[in-house]
TrEMBL record:
It comes from the Bacteria. The keyword Oxidoreductase applies. Residues 136-255 form the GFO/IDH/MocA-like oxidoreductase domain. Belongs to the Gfo/Idh/MocA family. PANTHER family: OXIDOREDUCTASES (PTHR22604), TRANS-1,2-DIHYDROBENZENE-1,2-DIOL DEHYDROGENASE (PTHR22604:SF105). Keywords: Oxidoreductase. Residues 8-126 form the Gfo/Idh/MocA-like oxidoreductase N-terminal domain. It comes from Paenibacillus filicis. It holds the Pfam family GFO_IDH_MocA_C3. This is Gfo/Idh/MocA family oxidoreductase. The keyword Ribosomal protein does not apply. InterPro entries: Gfo/Idh/MocA-like_OxRdtase_N, Gfo/Idh/MocA_domain, GFO_IDH_MocA-like_dom, NAD(P)-bd_dom_sf.
């Protein structure tokens, strides 16, 4: 039960950069959430984080935080290979779970996590914050209205260059490193969201870098959807920064220059070209991390239907499994 303030009380498992930069500030800006505790395997590190971010309690182990009865939900930004273990432990402790993407290392691991949460009667959500931005609802409405005609193709990109950083968990095979896991999951998720369908097959080419523990530092692929619609995408951790989405129809296009991350101001606007005319669509200035936290809180506190079912994480991981298999075996994989 949430405290008398009516807010969802969050605990943070780990001191990852994404938690500091985005998710914790987002929860703090949300209407229905508050950050009550943070844990690290180093008590000193947790205490420093708590002091810096004005978090009431700090713990020197994840188990201690999960034992805290004044925590309703946890956010898990741990390295990918730890998602399964700590999601299941959180569920068994009766905590709702917001798990950083990708949900796990495989679809089967994700199924275990979702099942554990269902058995414990807690919510499981994958942290694809971009989906909570109202512009994606607006985009789907434009498509449904037929403004750009029948959909023919989607193109997505998400690349950045961190190749020179040392000790980066994204460069460890055992810890679930690689660009498909880290950023390729976004255009795949977005295409599934826009189309409202699941892919039929994938073909992916990847650059597995010897300098980075043989993880995929760049990948390019084709994801085949029903109706002969394809997502072409590329993702990388050793390339110039881009995060775009283009939706092509018979009569026009929708372009998102900043599709998944980036500014909360006018930089989040998108463009529609139809019948030869191009217009900029203004979107509300919002924090999609805060919207994500509020969406989960409304489900927990008020019983509102969850925005994205837990099984969505399993479905996205099935596509990622196929992408990695295709890249490693150099062949088309039918889903």
């Amino acid at each position: 039960m949430a405290q008398a303030s009516g807010k969802l009380r969050w605990g943070i498992l780990g001191c990852a950069g994404i938690a500091f930069r985005a998710v914790i500030p987002g929860i703090k800006q949300s209407e229905l959430g508050e950050v009550s505790a943070i844990a690290s395997r180093s008590l000193e590190k947790a205490q420093e984080a708590a002091a810096r971010l004005d978090i009431p309690r700090a713990y020197g182990s994840y188990e201690e935080l999960l034992a805290d009865e004044q925590i309703d939900a946890v956010y898990i930004p741990l390295p990918n290979h730890l998602h399964r273990e700590w999601t299941i432990k959180a569920a068994q402790a009766g905590k709702h779970v917001l798990c950083e993407k990708p949900a796990a290392l495989t679809a089967s691991e994700t199924e275990e996590m979702v099942a554990a949460c269902a058995e414990a009667g807690v919510i499981f959500a994958e942290a694809f914050m971009y989906r909570h931005h109202p512009r994606y609802r607006m985009i789907r409405e434009i498509i449904a209205a037929g403004e750009i005609g029948e959909l023919r193709a989607i193109r997505g990109t998400f690349t950045f260059n961190s190749s020179g950083s040392t000790g980066n968990v994204r460069f460890s095979r055992d810890m679930g490193g690689g660009s498909l896991y880290d950023v390729g999951c976004y255009p795949i998720s977005a295409a599934r969201l826009v189309l409202g369908q699941e892919p039929e097959a994938v073909t992916v080419q990847a650059f597995f870098s010897e300098q980075h523990d043989h993880v995929d530092m760049m990948a390019s692929g084709l994801v085949e959807f029903p109706g002969s619609v394809g997502l072409t995408f590329d993702c990388g951790m050793w390339a110039a920064f881009r995060n775009t989405l283009e939706i092509l129809g018979t009569d026009g296009t929708i372009e998102l220059p900043s599709a998944y991350v980036g500014p909360t101001d006018a930089g989040a606007n998108f463009f529609v070209t139809a019948k030869g005319e191009r217009r900029e669509v203004e979107v509300p200035v919002v924090n999609h991390y805060a919207l994500q936290a509020d969406s989960i809180a409304r489900t927990v506190l008020s019983g509102e239907p969850i925005a994205f079912e837990a099984t969505d994480a399993v479905l996205n991981m099935r596509v990622l499994d196929a992408c990695l298999k295709s890249a490693r075996e150099s062949k088309r994989i039918v889903l």
